[in-house]
Amino acid sequence: MRKSKNIIQYTYEKALSHSFYKYVMMITGIPVYLIAFILYVFRKKDDKYGEIKATVFKQTKKDLYESLLSDYEQQLRDKAAFFNQKTDENHIRVEAKKWAAETINEIVDQKVSEKTARLGVKENTFKNFFVELLGKRHFLVFTFIPGLLMYLFIFIFMNAYVKYIFDRLVMTFFVIIGVIFFVFTLLYISPLDPAANILGVTATKEQIANFNQLYGLDQPYFVQLWDAIRGIFTFDLDLSYEGNQDVGESILRRFPITAQLAFLSLIVSVIVAIPIGIISATRQNTFADYSFMFFALLGLSIPNFWLGLIFILTFSIKLQLLPATFYPGNFLSIIMPVIALGTALAASIARMTRASVLEVIQEDYILTARSKGLSSSKVLWRHVIPNAMIPIITLIGLQFGGMLGGAAITEKVFNISGIGSFIVDKQFIPDVPSVMAGVVYVAITISIVNVLIDIMYAFFDPRIRSKMKEY
User: Fold this and answer.
1) What is the CATH number of the domain that holds 377?
2) What does the pLDDT read at residue 1?
3) Could you tell me which residues come within 8 angstroms of residue 244 by beta carbon, excluding any fewer than 6 positions away?
4) Are 433 and 240 in contact (CB under 8 A)?
5) Which one of 122, 139, 158 terminates a domain?
6) What domain range is 124 assigned to?
7) Is residue 315 very low, low, confident or very high in pLDDT (cuts 50, 70, 90)?
8) Which residue has the higher pLDDT, 124 or 365?
9) Is the pLDDT of residue 341 over 80?
10) Cα 346–349–354 angle (5° rounding)?
11) Contact 346, 265 (CB under 8 A)
12) What is the C-alpha to C-alpha distance for residues 423 and 431, in angstroms, rounded to an integer?
């Protein structure tokens, strides 16, 4: 039990050095601080620290004050004489007393710090008293319910991996808030008028005013912004301007389709590209290397919409092997969209894998591993690939966001009713609730993927794990 108490005390003091956790614990721990403050006010008055400081101050002043005062007065007289200045004894006396007092305080602080550390005595402040209370079992039990949130944050800070994930989630939250703010602001200042676009040029001023009132477009900017933020986090997305459809239901119906398309494309790209990149790197400047990199360059150069049209012409119209459009539940209908969307990503991953593996192979520790007699396969799988994965993982995370954004074109080509085509259709009105919901939930998905990427960094790179434990 003593060990757990010390951990709680140590973690709390360490968390106070981080401004975010300091203020979070101050807010969430208000009930605990109030209980501790009452105990602090009515505690037994036993100020050993103050007694030690008073004794040391009295003794130090008695031993050193007069000699320091005399030395400083002489220094000030010598300085005045050197610069041919008129000496003012009263001014010299005041300055010398000031310097002597400052020196005495510094010496006293140092002596008190050494003596109290040797005796295990701490200054009788509320902070030290509170840390001492955290080491008492009955105090923890008594304040556990009112201080549950504060103790939860102490636990989060206690575990480096949990803290690492929590920090990323907090950053993700603020990213989402920023996305909502910028998207809403851009739509708000857009010159397009939803009422005029939907009602048509024949709409009267009264009809436009009624439309704006119905959807809250006549409200001030900050009111509309707050409604948008509240709607995103509560999933109360209101009705779309066009068609008067429930935006939440539209998102729930369309988003899984786009997510399925993007994740399948990502998985296929990784499965195909990483082995190709490794083979190209281990067989550098061979026919296989040149061939793979040629096709990778070709994959980067071909637009995915053009590739999708070629697939439709070839495999749907001429060969009649695959459906030209997407049908939910039909596995064959998603093959061409997945390949069309994932081709550029696979090409990028293959090239990055090759470059990263070649860079790691040239490191000194790889030469050391080979000199120990390890086989080429063991060197490759134990040392090369784990160290080469960091830039590859980074690329995958960055490209996944672009893949979700670029899915709109693929969805249009293959007539897929996904979130990408939904946003494209609604943005020219602009249908603010629909566009806001689509863009923000895509941003949330990308943020979650980036959190997973950060966690994978720690899994593959021991340097990141050791750095996590330092904070």
Assistant:
1) 1.10.3720.10
2) 37
3) none
4) yes
5) 158
6) 2-158
7) confident
8) 365
9) yes
10) 125
11) no
12) 9
**Cα-based distances in Å from 220 to 20, 78, 187, 227, 427:** 32, 72, 14, 11, 21
With helix as H, strand as E and coil as C, how does 230-269 read? HHHHHCCCCECCCCCCEHHHHHHHHHHHHHHHHHHHHHHH
CB 130 within 8 A of CB 29: no
Does some domain include residue 462? Answer: no
Same domain, 19 and 136: yes
- How far is 432 from 234, CA to CA, in rounded Å? 17
Q: Residue 379 has which token pair?
A: 């060197």
Residue with tokens 């003596």: 115
User: How many residues comprise the chain?
Assistant: 471
The structure's pTM equals: 0.64
**Sign, CA torsion 430/431/436/439:** negative
The tens digit of pLDDT for each residue in 408-451 reads 778 888 888 788 777 877 777 777 788 888 888 888 888 888 88
For residue 342 the two structure tokens come to: 């994932």
Give Rg (Cα) of the chain. 34
Q: Which of 94, 129, 158 is at the close of a domain?
A: 158
3-state DSSP call for residue 96?
A: helix
pLDDT of amino acid 178: 87
Identity at 34, one-letter amino acid code: L
How far apart are alpha carbons 63 and 52 in whole angstroms?
Answer: 16
Q: What is the pLDDT of residues 370-391, one digit of tens each?
A: 887 777 778 888 778 877 888 8
DSSP structure class, residue 260? H
Q: Can you name the residues that pair with 239 across neighbouring β-strands? A: 246
- C-alpha to C-alpha distances, 228 to 183, 231, 238, nearest whole angstrom: 10, 5, 10
| pLDDT tens digits for range 244-266 | 777 888 888 888 888 888 888 88
Cβ atoms 87, 77 nearer than 8 A? yes
pLDDT of residue 47: 63
**Is the peptide bond between 430 and the residue preceding it cis, with omega within 30 degrees of 0?**
yes
At residue 318, what is the residue type? K
Structural tokens at position 146: 């009112």
290 and 154 in one domain? no
Domain total in the chain: 2
CA angle 218, 224, 229 (to 5 degrees): 165
